[in-house]
Amino acid sequence: MSRRKKRRPEKPRGRTNPAGKRGIPDAPKHLEDPGPRKGARRGLALWLVPAAVIIAAAAVIFLLTRPGRAGLVKRDNGLNVVLITMDTTRADHLGCYGYSRGKTPNLDALARDGVRFENVYAQVPLTLPSHCSIMTGTYPIYHNVHNNGTYVLPPDQTTIAKVMKNNGFQTAAVVASFSVDSRFGLNQGFDLYDDNFQPGLPFKPANSERKAGEVVGLFSAWLDGRAPGKFFAWVHFFDPHFPYDPPPPFDREFADNPYDGEIASMDAAIGAVVEKLRGKNLLERTLIVLAGDHGEGFGDKVETGHGVFLYDETLKVPLILSSPGHLPAGKVIPSRVRLIDIAPTILDMVGVPVPRPFRGLSLVPSIRGKKAKDLDSYLETFYPRENYGWSELTGLVSGDWKFIRAPKPELYNLKADPAEKRNEIAASGNVAAEMNRKLEALVKESAGIAGASNRSLTAAEQERLRSLGYVSFSGGGTKSSYPDPKDELDVLRLSQRATTYELEGKFAEAADAYAKLVPLMPDAPESYVNLALSQARLKKFDEAIATLRQGAERIPGSEAVLSRLGYTYLVTGRFQEALATMNQVLDRNPRQVDALTAAASALDSLGRKDEARAYLEKAVAVEPESKFLRLTLALNLASAGRIGEAVEIYKTLIRDYPRDQALRQHLGIAYGVLGDYPNAIASFEEAIGIAPTPTAYMNLAVACKRAGRTEDAIRALRLYLEDPKGESPATRRVAEAELRALENSLKK
Question: From 99, 167, 543, 696, which residue has the greatest number of CB atoms within 10 Å?
Answer without folding.
Answer: 696
